[in-house]
Amino acid sequence: MSSTHLHAGSAHVVSCTTTARALWLKLQSILYKDTKGNTRNCARTTAAERRGEAVDEEGPDTKAHSGADAVAVVALLTSHTENPKLLFVKQFRPPVNAYTIEFPAGLIDPGETPLQAALRELKEETGYIGEPLEGSRIGNDVVHVSPELCLSPGMTAESIHVVTLKVDLDDEKNHHPKQDLDEEEDIEILRIEVPSLLRELDALAGENYRIFDGVYLFAYGLVFSGLADALHSEHTEAKGG
After folding, report:
1. Proportion of the chain in helix, strand, coil states, percent, rounded to 5
2. How far is C-alpha 171 from the chain's CA centre?
3. Where is the composition biased (Basic and acidic residues) (predicted)?
4. Residue 199 belongs to some domain of the structure
5. DSSP SS3 for 101
């Protein structure tokens, strides 16, 4: 097995100034040094203060708080009487003027861990009560909470944790899920069987739904992992022959 070791470059942000605010977003002008020492400018959006937090001071730091802004929840629905399914939400998103297919997601409140935020957001948006997906490990590392991940680093500082949860449909508390939505939220729930996920997403895209890129990449990863296993088997057989 080979690995690639990357080294951080010398580029860095010199200053960051908020030029406009709207609802929960800020537009900021950034002055930074590139790897050749040139001073350059760019702009980006970032989340404003989270609930209960004080207004941030301007400076080279890029966000009003440390850590990820939000969580996205990969929820696996399990049952003894149904095939495993994944849980998604459909909602209208004005910035893209379309209905989108996304993971359940939301902001991390002050004092919350990513896991606590994921459990809360899952319950609020879908009504389901989840639990950490046990047995998801790579080596000795539990992977039901991801590292802090960037979303669209060319234009925003927003970052998230991806949290993997299990929803036991056989548990009585999940027999009649009831959403707890904010007044402005209008969210529908989609349950899609794992083997048909990519095909279903392609069909939804054909009906003019916009698919969150993380959802599509997740679906493609499921397909690609099977392809990679097949190619590895072919390679092993060819070497043996």
Report:
1. 25, 35, 40
2. 26
3. 47-64
4. no
5. strand
Alpha helices by DSSP H, listed for 51-182, are 114-126
Q: Which residue has the tokens 């349950």?
A: 191
Q: What is the pLDDT of residues 171-184, one digit of tens each?
A: 999 999 999 998 88
Q: Does residue 30 carry a pLDDT above 60?
A: yes
By the 8 A CB rule, do 60 and 14 touch? yes
Q: In terms of domains, do 61 and 168 share one?
A: no
> What is the pLDDT, as a whole number, of residue 224?
85
Please choose, from the candidates 202, 199, 222, the residue with its C-alpha nearest in 3D space to the C-alpha of residue 211: 202
For residue 18, pLDDT over 50 is answered with yes
**Residue 132 confidence (pLDDT):** 87
Q: How far apart are CA 217 and CA 210, in angstroms?
A: 13
Inside any domain, residue 125: yes
176-184 own/partner pairs: CB under 8 Å, 24+ apart: 176/127, 177/126, 177/127, 177/128, 178/127, 179/124, 179/125, 179/126, 179/127, 180/123, 180/124, 180/127, 181/124, 181/125
For residue 182, how many other CB atoms are within 10 A of its CB?
10
**61 shares its domain with 74:** no
Write out the residue range of the structural domain in which residue 178 sits. 70-190
